[in-house]
């Protein structure tokens, strides 16, 4: 969606986030992942756990920057909303297509319905609906509070917070069944880190980005600073009741990661938009979905054709023997990102931008 006022800082932050996604998704050796690039096993929050919340936060920011000026200028919200929802549908279809490709080429036992792009599509559509149809700042803040309290109440009031006993996994079992990310045929239990109920937390993250984008558009840096500090403080205090948990996307996780995302947005705005620093990561940012989907297909093809293991052994086996397997895994991930950085920079220089 073309923005009337495109901020280089937002493109740069989105691009760095996509580059980080590629880094953690392609370690070369999943048995020896460099430890900072691992997700928390269950409760907790590692640097890697910040990446997806950052992206969804930026989805909200970008929608505010794209739709806000047009609506303020008197554009009819209906056509804008239809266009946004159609794009959300295309992102959803792309996510399903990529999972179909992985199921076919990698001979997975079941097709997975939910996933990263599917969650992005749902959050994009939700934020667009609010941006066009429920524009009141007070109403959006009230909805954010309702999402946090309502979802938190569901997690605390039904089941427990273990992987097997939480209500989000129970719902994934009932609705996704064997088409979830994890399925245990013995117990009949399913779990999906991008499952249905936990998407409520992801929606809250996107809404937080929508409100931050409105302040960024008005140059309200003081309000953004308070939002960052307040979210971090509340996110830390809320762990007394609900721990940080990316797979459940708990309300405390929403606030904690949202605070860091707001701080990163403020820093990027200051350095890139105000001090005119070079927008590092911009090439990834303006071709974000294309880079993610292209990297996914590249990995699936390498794995499906049986080329990944010999390629890794030939190119990085010596480093594993010299410096250890985790260093070799990190080196592969860095090279993978560097290759895609060259690709998106080449596309950017030619003005080729692939929009879903």
TrEMBL record:
The keyword Transcription does not apply. InterPro entries: HGSNAT_cat (IPR012429). The chain crosses the membrane at residues 12-30, 50-67, 88-106, 112-134, 141-159, 195-212, 224-241, 253-272, 284-307, 327-347. Residues 6-158 form the Heparan-alpha-glucosaminide N-acetyltransferase catalytic domain. Keywords: Membrane, Transmembrane, Transmembrane helix. It comes from the Bacteria. Coiled coil: none annotated. This is Heparan-alpha-glucosaminide N-acetyltransferase domain-containing protein. It comes from Paucibacter sediminis. The lineage of its organism: Bacteria, Pseudomonadati, Pseudomonadota, Betaproteobacteria, Burkholderiales.
């Amino acid at each position: 969606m073309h923005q009337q006022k495109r901020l280089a800082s937002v493109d740069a932050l989105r691009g760095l986030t996509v580059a980080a996604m590629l880094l953690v998704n392609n370690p070369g050796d999943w048995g020896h992942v460099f430890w900072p690039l691992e997700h928390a096993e269950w409760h907790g929050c590692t640097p890697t756990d910040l990446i997806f919340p950052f992206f969804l936060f930026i989805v909200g920011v970008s929608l505010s920057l794209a739709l806000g000026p047009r609506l303020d200028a008197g554009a009819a919200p209906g056509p804008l909303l239809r266009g946004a929802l159609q794009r959300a549908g295309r992102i959803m279809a792309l996510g399903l297509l990529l999972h179909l490709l992985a199921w076919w080429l990698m001979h997975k036992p079941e097709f997975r319905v939910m996933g990263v792009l599917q969650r992005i599509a749902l959050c994009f559509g939700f934020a667009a609906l609010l941006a066009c149809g429920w524009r009141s700042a007070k109403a959006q803040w009230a909805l954010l509070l309702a999402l946090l309290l309502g979802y938190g109440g569901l997690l605390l009031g039904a089941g427990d917070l273990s992987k097997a006993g939480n209500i989000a996994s129970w719902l994934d079992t009932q609705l996704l069944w064997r088409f979830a990310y994890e399925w245990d045929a013995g117990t009949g239990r399913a779990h999906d880190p991008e499952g249905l109920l936990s998407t409520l937390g992801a929606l809250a993250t996107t809404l937080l980005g929508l409100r931050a984008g409105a302040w960024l558009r008005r140059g309200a840096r003081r309000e953004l600073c308070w939002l960052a500090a307040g979210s971090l403080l509340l996110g830390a205090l809320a762990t007394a009741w609900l721990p940080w948990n990316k797979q459940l996307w708990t309300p405390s996780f929403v606030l904690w990661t949202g605070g860091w995302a707001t701080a990163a947005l403020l820093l990027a705005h200051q350095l890139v938009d105000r001090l005119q620093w070079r927008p590092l990561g911009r090439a990834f940012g303006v071709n974000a979905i294309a880079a993610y989907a292209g990297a996914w297909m590249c990995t699936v093809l390498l794995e499906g054709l049986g080329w990944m293991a010999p390629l890794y052994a030939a190119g990085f086996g010596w480093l594993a023997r010299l410096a250890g397997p985790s260093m070799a895994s990190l080196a592969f991930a860095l090279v993978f990102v560097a290759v895609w950085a060259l690709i998106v920079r080449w596309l950017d220089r030619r003005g080729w931008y692939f929009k879903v």
